[in-house]
Amino acid sequence: MPAYILKRLAALIPLLLLVSVVVFLLLRDAQGDPAMAYLRLSRIPPTDEALATARRMLELDLPLWQQYARWLARAVTGDFGNSYVTGRPVLGDVLHYLPATLQLAGAALLLTLAVSVPLGVGAALHRDRPLDNAARALSYTSVSLPNFWLGFLLVWLFAVRLGWLPALGRGGFEHLVLPAVTLSLMSMGINTRLIRTSLLENMHARHIMYARARGISERGVVWRHMFKNSLIPVLTSLGMHVGELLGGAVIVETVFAWPGVGRYAVSAVYNRDYPILQCFMLLMTAIFVLCNLAVDILYAWADPRIRLGEDRA
Amino acid sequence: MSTETLAADTPSMAPPAVFDTPPGSALLRQLLSRPTALAALALLCIILTMAVFAPAFSPRPPDDVDITRKFEAPSLEEPLGTDHLGRSVLARLCHGTRVSLFAVAAILTCIVAVGLTAGCVAGYAGGRVDGLLMRACDVFMTFPTFILALFLVGLLGSGLTNVVIAVACTHWAWYARFARGLVLGLKQREYVLAARAAGTRPARLVLRHILPPVLAQMLVMAGLDVGHMLLHVSGLSFLGLGVRPPTPEWGVMIGDAREYIGTHPELLLYPGLMIFVTVMAFNLLGDALRDALDPAAARETDCAPHGPAGPDGLDGMDGMDGMEEHEDAEPGAPDFGGIGAGAREEAA
Hints:
The complex is a heterodimer of chains A (313) and B (348).
Chain A: H1 2-28, H2 34-41, H3 48-57, H4 64-76, H5 90-125, H6 130-144, H7 147-161, H8 173-203, H9 206-213, H10 218-255, H11 261-271, H12 274-302, H13 304-312
Chain B: H1 3-7, H2 24-32, H3 35-52, H4 54-57, H5 89-125, H6 127-142, H7 145-156, H8 160-187, H9 190-197, H10 202-238, H11 250-257, H12 266-293, H13 295-303, H14 319-328, H15 338-347
Helix pairs in contact in B: 3-5, 3-12, 5-6, 5-8, 5-10, 6-8, 7-8, 8-10, 9-10, 10-11, 10-12, 11-12, 12-13
């Protein structure tokens, strides 16, 4: 198992390097000239001389590969440069806002699982009965609802009309409810459906028949034999949900004025504050990739065929 | 926002079977026999009519500002009232339909074109070209899509064209992979082998014998993705990074109306409802289309979530025939989620 994990980690390195090249090149190729953007945001008149100084400072005069190498060397040590707007180191700012985002995304993920697992299992066991139909309706609705609109609907109902929950900002548990529900709904619908389908697929498998034949209680059959095996495709999708939640958080944070890194990145887009954008992009991608790696490892642990297959190879 | 997430695993599976396209009339009949598809089709007709005849439905031009008439209640002249700048809400909704549908059409055209080309080249050429293209796909599939779109818009600047580019950039890789898988499968088909043996030149072989069936599959996949793309576009517009504000677009309208949620919540309601209904209609129709084209996949989808980008592995709404099919299904050998496993392994 450790060998498997190491192998997967090693496979990530070239991928992440390629990702960094893409991010770096995209940024260099951006329509706006970084030196101009820097001057504009620092309120320095864009004279030729100032431009030349800025170019030298931002190392825009070096050959491209050198720029990349230097940038990468610094990025690896956590130095993503300074914000064009505040002049503060970017990583510090991004890390300052990150916990709020992780809290929101984490809460949404937990909520997704808490609802989709029982609902998906229920829907599969009560196929084409009201519960299943309700789950199906939830799935179809949730993938079609724009999350920003849903957020406002919830704010209007629970904050403006009923006054039960706060509409904006971050604070206690009650602040977390509406954003987390908004963010999780889509994953919830997808996951419910996935668990249902996966269970139905397993329902007629031979090992289930065998378990029944052995006289194992229905509950044991469902949870130990059916549910455990249906978790495997669900696990795969879990890593993907993390990407959705991180992306969705950008919008949900904006709706609820949640002081997270997504909202910070949106303001960086307005300001063309490229270093922040770059750091945000790489950090989110890294989180996403690591979550998927964790899923892969869980996966290998859950499904010996993968682990053994890899070992043999 | 998630359509591609589950579909992400699809293309790397065993090369998907290519369905044989039934004739148009049979397809239509099958579609019309499904109540949900019929309802979706009817809704889409209404929405399309709104888009095409937007000026006819509009009491005034959509960007006609009249501060003296702000927040007017619905009236005969202004069926949905006016917004915070006194613009006609109905006119903006109708013209917004045009903008949204155009953006989605542009995005999907780009994605299908790029994905098809890359997939066919990679699948047919194989070797180093294939390796290179697939690594490029890997990189693009590494980013969380919406975050990459945000980043690209941040670099390119806002505006409709840039949104189209950004969203297309974030999604082409899934299509390319899927197309490649199809091409790999088709290459082994007898008719292709026969054509090759007969000395057909590669370009002609691809264009005549491989491209058409792949294109058909890609269009189904695109149909399933319309709603998803629409959510991307309106989401970016809502953030103020998509279509620029004076242009009537649903996401922009929601962004504009958010200030007045306490006093005029109906301004938020209309555009959101439009997005919701449109996305829903496209999703339902896309599902029905896939099921009608590929009954085998529909049956499998009920057991395993892996239609071509099936919106998030949702199967058809008509559970009834799904059930019959399922009962008929042979209890196969216990397969512990081998589908995901294969995908994972290849993705590694």
